Known about the structure:
731 residues; 6-stranded antiparallel beta sheet; alpha+beta; 5-stranded antiparallel beta sheet
Amino acid sequence: MLTEDVLAAIATGLWRWDDASGTVTLDGEAARLLGMPEEPVTLTESATRSRFHPIDWNEIDGIVNLALAEGTLAEARMRVVDESGRVLRTVRVRTKPTVTSPAEGERDYEMVGTVQAVIEPQPGTTVERTSVTGDWRRSREAFLLDAGRALAEARSTAEVLRVAASLSMPGFSPDGLAVYGVSGERLTIIGHHGHAPEDSAPFEGMTVDTDYPAAEVVRTGRAVYLPTPEAYAERYPATWRYVERFGRRSWAFLPLIVAGRTLGTWMAAFKHRVAFSPDERSVLTTVARMLAQALARAGVAETERELSLGLQRTMMPTLGPEIPGMTVAARYVPTGGGLQVGGDWYDMIPLPGGAARSQSRWGGRFALVIGDVQGHDVRAAGLMGQLRIALRAYASEGHRPDAVLSRATRFLAGLNHYPGRDRGGPPTDAGPAAMNEWYSVAGPRFATCLYLEVDPENGTLDIARAGHPDPVIRTADGTAFIRHTEGGLPLGIETDSDYPTTRLVLGPGETLMLCTDGLIETGGHDLATGWARLRPVLEQDSGESLEKLADALIQAVHGPTSHYTTGPLVDRREDDIALLLLARDLAPTRLGGIPRRTALTVAQAEPERIAGVRRQLRELLHDWTDEEQIDSAELMVSEMLTNVLVHTDADALLVAEARGERGGRRLRVEVADTSDELPHRRRPGELASSGRGLVLMEVLADAWGVDPRGEGKSIWFELYECGGTEPEASS
């Protein structure tokens, strides 16, 4: 069987191009593929050109010249057209050009090759990729789109290098990669793939004038292509001995250029021969440009990240040594801006006048501070640092919580009104952009803050609050509720604001949570829905460690599952998060069950706090079985407190405690005062506005009484969740 018959059987034609005579000879199959009768024919160069798409014909000249220069095969995909310019088919042309006139000044060549049809899918049909060829242009475009997207998403140098190593170029994927940078007059290896760590030793610290392709690329800014080992050895004999042992067959060294500046070199090495056709060079050049941009972005991001982390490490304190009988945990998550530190902060401050402390344990009083400066920019971070230092100074001087915050608000107000600031405020004719810029750079800033002193011996907490969210208490049985406290204006708004102090007692086994509004409102939530999202997390496992609880709270707000618990607000709000947890160790109890307990003081001058006490009691009994008993408890507490404030000159101290298993719990509420006058039953008329307190308690309470004390008295009542039967106490 003749070779021509075999080629015709597989739809492959033969052709010969003589550059000297300007003629192209086709066999019958080649003529058929070019849209002519199936018989041998000789055409002029212009007649042959008319059979191909003009764009494809222009490309083949560069391919042939490159193949002549490098001694490789020339290959191209070309579209065959008819007289009207309609595309008939696509063919793959392969040839080996040979110079026929090597004399100086002459460059005639002859090409002998094949023409083969490429099957293209028709509209409405499905055609699988054939083993003959692939759609080079379509593969190249898809590859470049995928590569560009992957490199654009890389956020670090290591990630950029991983993406570059995983790129699968269409038809000529490299198996060895290296990225060189420049440090002064020397090359540095930023990263490599396909080589052992010790393989890079000969190339470390090369100067840029070394006879090495990567160094030449840095010097000239032009790519170097080495299609054969012979080309490498001939052009760079000094460094060929270091490269030969890797067994590679082709190399490409491309400049990494950003904004006209060569940052380094990208090397792609191949175990197979690569001709580096114009299409292949175009792909490599495009990848090098994208790689350079990705490395530049990653470098800037890493510099900013290192700066932010350094600032965060400087401004965010450690929690200090162990505290006898207590545990503290803290978290800081910068989610609201590009910086890794913003206006949120927390602190833990040892206070003067306490017991002696060793280096490993704190035995005296200490303060916990949490706050949030308005904004997420550099200025907010700077103000936060200044305010934190001022608070530490005031606390270390021994001031009480209210005095610490009063001094802090004057300090921040002074920063907001330093000399030289525009006394008239922002320009009256400024647009929205100018107004925003003025408030960002020179506008006044305020800060919310919560400051509390802690006595580890008895769990006493003295709290002063400046516009900050209230603390949350989780009782020993795992019930969590917001503990409403007195407060004043945020810091920096007024120079003479008052900050009343609230005293709480953190009982054994109870946990205190302090947080900034980012933990509550992030994710489109307001204060109500944000608290509803956090409460189950706090209550789900009261026995877990404080560190695990802190992680669980952050994950609920900032983790993957948070996207399925977005709030009712239209925009998904993001904000920085600061979190502090303080737990008191659980002490053994003589009675059955872990108590749920709260204590509050209502002063004579603050009768409006009775409404807050009612809310607090309802929070304490949020899971009580009988709703009517909760209403009864609120009514009796209001009567008891009002009686103290109206009929005595003393403050009222309320202690409420719920104990037992759910469904069979006992609620005991005591209201104590320093008056020795005992209450007595009266018979009020129909129109009387008072005198019914003891009558109500007799009707609504399961048990009640009045107990005299050394100084004053205590009025108490009990409610039994099981319906009037006193729960049995275990020994």
